[in-house]
User: Which sequence fits this backbone?
């Protein structure tokens, strides 16, 4: 961080030395110092308002794993009996084949919204009841209804209740 503070900011060199020493002895939190550095750079280049907005954006999207925005338009489909996530993606037009859909899921491009629609869980991550690659069911074996999926960065798919 020393080089960034000295080359990219107008922070007093004595303060930079205190920051570096605090990081070395563990009395300063590295994440907080990096956020402070980023805020300082943005404030010096774009003003305090932009620095505050950038910090809030970082905390919302990275630290709390929120989203940039709510979905604008979601494709809505009725689930069929025994349908898998891959087949649903093909029917919605997000993939040309089930194999391509499975690759998208495996690469983490398909995420399932939690109840709050703030946290998106990768479909290929194990859930308490097992991986999410099989039929679309809840733990009781009933078809999940009203599920919101994000496919890529801008595609959304809603299953009808």
Assistant:
């Amino acid at each position: 961080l020393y080089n960034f503070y000295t080359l990219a900011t107008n922070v007093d060199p004595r303060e930079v030395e205190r920051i570096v020493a605090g990081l070395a002895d563990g009395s300063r939190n590295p994440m907080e110092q990096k956020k402070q550095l980023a805020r300082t750079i943005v404030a010096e280049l774009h003003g305090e308002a932009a620095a505050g907005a950038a910090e809030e954006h970082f905390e919302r999207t990275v630290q709390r794993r929120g989203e940039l925005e709510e979905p604008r338009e979601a494709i809505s489909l009725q689930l069929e009996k025994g349908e898998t996530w891959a087949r649903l993606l093909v029917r919605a037009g997000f993939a040309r084949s089930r194999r391509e859909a499975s690759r998208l899921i495996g690469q983490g491009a398909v995420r399932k919204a939690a109840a709050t629609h703030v946290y998106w869980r990768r479909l290929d991550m194990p859930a308490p009841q097992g991986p999410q690659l099989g039929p679309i069911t809840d733990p009781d074996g009933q078809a999940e209804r009203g599920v919101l999926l994000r496919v890529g960065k801008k595609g959304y798919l809603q299953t009808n209740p």
In short: Residues 126-133 have pLDDT under 50 and may be disordered. Strands lie at 75-77, 110-113, 120-122, 148-151, 155-159.
